[in-house]
Amino acid sequence: MGKPTAFKEIVREVVPYRPPAERLHDFEEILTPGEDEHLQSQGSRCMDCGVPFCQSADGCPIDNLIPEWNDQVYQGNWRAALDRLHQTNNFPEFTGRVCPAPCEGACVLGIIEPAVTIKNIENAIVDRGFEEGWIVPKPPSTRTGKTVGIVGSGPAGLAAADQLNKAGHTVTVYERADRIGGLLMYGIPNMKLSKSVVDRRVDLLQAEGIEFLTGINVGQPEDYSAGHMVSIMTEGGIGMSQLDSRELVSRHDAVLLATGATVPRDLQIPGRELSGIHFAMDYLTRSTRSLLNYGHHRATELSAKDQRVIVVGGGDTGADCIGTALRHGCRSMINFELLSKPTDERTAGNPWPQWPLIYRTEYAHEESANRFGEDPRRFALLSTEFIDNGKGRVSGIKTIQVDWSQPSDNAPFSLVPGSDTIWDCDLVLLSLGFLGPEHGISDPLTQSTNIDDAKWLTYTDRSTYRAEHGSYATGMPGVYAAGDCRRGQSLVVWAINEGRGAARAMDIFLMGHSSLSLPD
Amino acid sequence: MDNRFRQPRRPVGLYRPEFEHDSCGVGFVAHIKGHYSHSIIDDAYTVLRSMDHRGACGADENSGDGAGILTALPHQFLQRVVEEDIGARLPETGSYGAGTIFLPQVTEEREKCKQTVESIIADQGQTVIGWRAVPTCADEAGIGRTARLGEPYIEQLFIGAKSVVDRAAFERKLYLIQKQASHRLRSDPAMVQANMFYICSLSTRVMIYKGMLRTLQLMDYFPDLSAPDYTSHLAMVHSRFSTNTFPSWDRAQPGRFMAHNGEINTLRGNINWMRAREGMMHSTLYGSDLQSVFPVVEPDCSDSGNFDNVLEFLLMTGRTLQGAIMMMVPEAWQKHETMSRDKRAFYEFNSALMEPWDGPASIAFTDGRYIGALLDRNGLRPSRYYVTHDDRVIMASEVGVLPVAAENIKEKGRLQPGRMFLIDFEQGRLVPDEELKSEFSQKRPYQQWLEAGRIQLSDLVPGLDVPGLCSDTLLPRMKAFGYTAETLHFMLIPLITEGRDPVGSMGNDSALACLSDQPRMLYDYFKQLFAQVTNPAIDSIREEIVMSLACYVGPEHNLLEISDQHCSRLLIEHPILTNAEVSRLKRISQRDWKSREIDITFSESTGEEGLLAELKRICGEAEDAVDQGFQLLILSDRNAGPDRVAPSMLLASSTVHQHLVRTAKRTRVGLIIESGEPREVHHHCLLIGYGADAINPYLAYEALWQVSRDGGIDAAQFTDDEVVKSYRKGVAKGLFKVMGKMGISTLQSYKGAQIFEAVGLATDVVNYAFTDTASRVEGIGFDVLAQELFRRHELAYAENIDFQSSVLPNPGEFHWRAGGGKHGWDPQTIADVQQAARANDRTAYDRFSQQVNNEARGRYTLRGLMELKSSPRPVEISEVEPAADILRRFCTGAMSLGSISSEAHETLAIAMNRVGGKSNTGEGGESPERFKTQSNGDSKRSAIKQVASGRFGVTAWYLTNADELQIKISQGAKPGEGGELPGNKVDEQIARIRYSTPGVGLISPPPHHDIYSIEDLAQLIYDLKNANPLARVSVKLVSEVGVGTVAAGVVKAHADHILIAGDAGGTGASPLTSIKHAGLPWELGIAETHQTLVMNDLRSRVVLQTDGGMKTGRDVVIGALLGAEEIGFSTAPLITLGCIMMRKCHLNTCPVGIATQDPVLRKNFEGLPEHVVNYLFMVAEEARGYMAQLGIRTFNELIGRVDLLDTKEAVDHWKADGIDLSPVLMPALKPSADTGVFCQIEQDHGLDASLDKVQLLPMCKKALQTGDAVQIELPVANTNRTVGTTLSHEVVKKWGEQGLPDDTIVIRLAGSAGQSLGAWLANGVTIDLKGDANDYVGKGLSGGRIVVSPPAGTGFSAEDNIIVGNVCLYGATSGKAFFRGKAAERFCIRNSGAMAVVEGVGDHGCEYMTGGRVAVLGSVGRNFAAGMSGGIAYVWAPDRRSLKANCNLDMVGLENLSDFDLDELEEMIQLHHRYTGSDVGARLLSQGREPMKQQFVKVMPSDYKRFLEQAQSVSPGISARSPVSPQA
């Protein structure tokens, strides 16, 4: 398998992004199409390990058959590679673009050399499949007569829908936004995952018989804040219809909650009430809607153009905010990170095959440096106050430096005296992660009034829906939960893992057995 | 008498009586003209006593394993004693029969036996003359306790002939009497001592005295033998070395017509085929009486006994002794191109009658009229003879067993492979083999018969439509037959692209089939057995000349006749049939042959419960077809599909075979398989091993054809025909290897030989379908087999078509896969143990050990099913022996420098030296720089020095620098196989310490060529003990059924230490078939060994170690509880050093610098000794925790305490439910209350009596101390073994590797030297022997000089006679040897640097040679230079064609001598002449250079030549002139 000595002879080279100077002018995908020859030679670096750690618990959550398809690519058998890729992954075109690739972190070659470019290869296989027309709708040959309702059309919901549909169940997916895809649609900006790629897959699923219903808000109506998805939709003129949770449950033989972890973590410091401070999702959603509806020809509701922008929080979403703001034409860009700057190499406490906690420069950081001449990130900063410009709008953030090497009594870090700084800004984007799912949909399912008087859905301490990984069953018979709403915020690939697992559990619930495959 | 300790005839615990082995010394003395004398008896007795060291005794040193003598019927003597003792008169010679009979000691039972015998005699119309109690003197002879336990009452019976036409007819009557009496009495359940009844002999011509005696006790025990009027013209003697020491008088030899030194490897098959043939036998000589003879093969016999049974039967039904032997043990005729046509036809004809009884053998046989001897086809036993001027012949396993004056010797010879040595007393002469065989082969027109009779596949009418590839249905069919992605990737594709059984590395750590959650193929439940110690594996590649696949199949005819009809059978050259061939067979019509196709598939709706009924249906159809006269049965599963389920073809075919054997119909029909199931070599082995005649693996072809179409292999190269051709070629190689592993050379004898052990199959399955296969822990029944079958079927033909996946599943059997089968090493365990070892992180270790020990995970091994009982009285952990003490019991496994990098190798050594454990060199020598201690106190010296079959770098200095010398008999990952280090791994350093050439590949032979039997092992142990008296000698065995018995023999061979390795052990490279399917778990092996040794009271003399996948403290404790004092680890320490189980060792691409010699990759090595130390301490600490819980304070108290183990209370596994570990957990039976259960007694190696100790060391005391020269003259006898070795040890100990200057110590010997003369003889020591020598002269020669020449006054021409035995200069590394005369088989094999001159050699000369120079001034035998990769041989060959025919040209070329070469040769001959006074040498030198150039041929290894040419172009200083390897 592979070429036994290739790893010695060929160095890792990833498929390049478009040059920053070029890509900053549009929202088109940053990733360039890979060359066959390049990918084949990169595939040959795969060592066909006796114990492929890329499939381990530290590696790919859906146990992609990485050594198998790497070898097929090396041999130029793209079709065979695609067959193997689809064995475990419903949406390689998503993970191939957005996954941080824990498989590469666990790659055995990573012990001595940079890892195999697994993610690039995955992406190339599936893109090739679409290009060649190998991926066509394959509706199930028979139907079971059972119906399944899935709430939420993010990666978990879609993976479950795909699997359950394959098993012959009639699947309806409920989405409150105007477009299908959840986080894939509005959470990840277009340059990272083109919305046409999402639509392509959704169209395929639809052609295979899955029913998608948009603009449906399941659960109790609430007062939504300005940045909430329902508010954005309503503002955008989307007519929302409401569907009672219990009504939904009684409508279907089984229901899956795949609503994501959409409650953002807030930064409750003085001045939080000022205008110009937005949650990242609010900003990103509006940006993408604007792009899709108007191609950015019309000013967005929330643009960073000519603004001095500070992004608080250093994760992937933070980076996406940076990339988006740069494309909007921001005047300056700073990114706060509470943690210290990671080391360039693994530390002793972070051995292989664990995910390497090392300093990485993402596309947006590179772009920011390209635009402004320096990396936007500032590490070990704790924000202490938003400064008012006197007109109720934010004009800056006050921070203090933290020292992680000196824990204090009430925090794992201490404050560095005299390190107070004020950073000027016009727009603050909060990207501090997510707390858990919203409960509007689930609260009605938590208490006994009706519905067979059975058991009920409950929450964990972290506010997620309580269900075991593997069984995915909430306390309520026939009601399942998967994805971020169950496990808390995580990766797209984990959402696929959960969607697939839940589908199998539901299939067994419905039929008594299941032929659906299951990741470990 | 205590009956508890009679020989267990039934399994006890893990012990199975049928795996007892023996091996021996055999010899005879005869007067060619048939003159009777008593001196013949005395001489034979001298011969016997001189071979005492070839026999053995057990714990009780006065109980021998058996000794006996066969003589002519001493008529004069008998007449006298019969009259004196019982007052009867014997009639004249020939008209009475006499025999020695063992009878029960219990009087009533004895009387019953005698009455029964008398009534049988009466029934047969003969008269009883009387019974004479044979006088025995147990006390005077000093018979030991064990022997006395089984001592029978011995009487002689005399039967008078009545109304028989001639002597032969009377002999036949005696045979009937003997058989009927044995059948009736030996199995009589009413008698307690039934199996004491045994008829040693009953004949008009010969008489046997034997018993469970030591050789020295025979004459004293039987005073009869000393009577001066006891005369004979022949006397055959035998001394037995049995692996066990249970009392068994009847197993002593000679048998009734033969004595055997060797082992029949194919016994089960031979027995089954004999049984099957009985249905077709009829005899005009016996008529209806013949039935009362059956079964021909008696139960409860040793393999020699079974052979004797059949030989006797053939003789009594009309064959001659020599004819019968030629049929049972044929020469390797198939590939013998120079054999005459007639002789080949004769053998080929015989092969249509009977399969060979295959195995190493030296058989001496006699019926009184003839006496003869024969060697097996591969010459695996020594047999030497003298013919004297006074008409005597002395034949024995050794020379020098009877002193004969030099001038009386007419001829000195040896038995040659497959050749027969025969004396015809009536003609009064020796009949040469050629004459004998040409007489036999011309008796009948065999060639004509064959040409007219045999049916060949190519003669048959082509089939109508030959099925090809059906792509559309291929994938589901593959899934239904259990194909996986791995089948293609690891097995089928490499099989055809590499043309051999695919190679892999590291050990098998996946679940036993019976514990696996995956549906497994039935084949996975069987483990291949292999030869170890008691017989050698065969090198099927280098010694291919003895291997053969061709078989006659289809109906046999009456074995008791010979006619042209007998070869009217179908000749199948290769057991793997093409689709075209099988369709021809379906339509066969030649000679009215018909074939019947039986569809083995059944309707899916029948369900799982239907399996057994379907098997019965298939058997019924098969039997009907036989009854209806069909000649061929074709079992087919072609109809398998969505609605038709195919039961395992192995199950179906073996069931049919067993059924037909049982009903004695099997030999009336050929059994052909057409199946989608078999594809791997192991599958074919099993099908054939359980009786199939030929196999058409159609799905394997189709799968590969599809791969070719899909671009997985080069379609241009692999056309459909080429795919089939390559597949068959690869499988043939694989079959040879598996057969060779067991020491079997022909497929015909492998067929039906059932050389497998089942693990995890229930008794009802085994009894029904795989009768008599060992299966010791029970397991799954037909219900689970059916479940697995239906699971596969469902996977293939899922109801919902949407789930019929487009790719094959990958269950992760070879490489770990997420969601696949369990492996001992998975990502989590590797990551955790690395973290634990690197950071000394106890938490990580706990995670690791918990996962490994955890019951769910642990269930991939047998120990996973065991539970440590909690003691009601646990002790405080502080009271338990400290970890540091436990660490001293830890060893790392044998991993050679070569298989792993020097960085890894040295790190392990340092780590083990730091903790007081032992590291192991592995096979490959060790650089002497490592013997010095480093400045920081660390040492890189490996305490254990391995001595493996390649003997790389095994010098006197190497052996001296060891605490333990380990003889590697087998290796867990590839028992019965040798190894190869590919040229790309042989770098400068490795070549230097292995005494070889960089870039030239190295071969380790499958067998040690100095261990073909247990007494050979005893000899090697003795050799090594002499080479380093302070080191303990260890023998490494691999777990398989019978290993306990082998181990008992090894203890009797005086090993100090035995390692029982498990099947999970690792390897740097081995065929996957072996990694996966050979050997058994260590749990079974160590438990069986402990039980057997305790039962034999041998346990207290030996330290037991076990290894094979050890990981945690729990493993250590279980190892001890099952019987081990020491524990070995290999993979786990490597993992702590960075190994991540890439399984790429064989490719040299280990990315972490462990299993590679690539300098770039070696830089990646990041392991430190601390990592190993940390890990082992944590293991020991964990073990202490368990000890505390068990309430045990010291390790020794753990040993053998199986009572502290329990099978898990709740075994919750769909398959494991049926497993029964009680035989493993059975406490060992102690012969007495004080029997030791761990090592407490030191072995007595008898070194104090050695010539070195008694004479040489005292005489060389000064020379050793000061280096002053000394000259010694001494007589020598064959009982002086290993002369000069201890002396050499002292030389290097004092003077270091370089020894002393040449000729500092000169030892002149006269006589016949014992085995291993001058083994590892060091620089500065010269041995000059006048006389002759036995096997292994100059083994491991390390710089000394050995000269052997006949004494003055010899009456024969030296160059025509044999002067030294087999396997001389094996593994020699430097030094010189000159032999004036011929050497026997395997001269100079694996020589890596010595110079040798000899005047002719037997077969396999210079095999595997890697360096040095050899000049052969006479002819060479067959297969010369096989596997020779270095060094040069100059061979005298005026007739180049015959040299070419005898040379194995795979690795060497034949060249003319250059001037340089001629200089070298001339110098060698000059030396030879100077030292030996050789006539040949003188003649050659006097002829001058030009004739010499014409007459000699240079045998030059091609790789070596390439190296020399390259080296010369780089550095002109290096030339082929240097007589030793260029680096030395």
From TrEMBL, chain A:
The keyword Signal does not apply. Residues 24-133 form the Dihydroprymidine dehydrogenase domain. GO terms for molecular function: glutamate synthase (NADPH) activity; iron-sulfur cluster binding; oxidoreductase activity, acting on the CH-NH2 group of donors, NAD or NADP as acceptor. InterPro entries: DPD_II, FAD/NAD-bd_sf, FAD/NAD-binding_dom, Glut_synth_ssu1, Glutamate_Synthase, Helical_ferredxn. SUPFAM superfamilies: alpha-helical ferredoxin (SSF46548), Nucleotide-binding domain (SSF51971). Residues 148-332 form the FAD/NAD(P)-binding domain. Pfam families: Fer4_20 (PF14691), Pyr_redox_2 (PF07992). The keyword Cytoplasm does not apply. GO terms for biological process: glutamate biosynthetic process. Keywords: Amino-acid biosynthesis, Glutamate biosynthesis, Oxidoreductase. Transmembrane segments: none annotated. Its EC number is 1.4.1.13. Pathway: Amino-acid biosynthesis. This is Glutamate synthase [NADPH] small chain. It comes from hydrothermal vent metagenome.
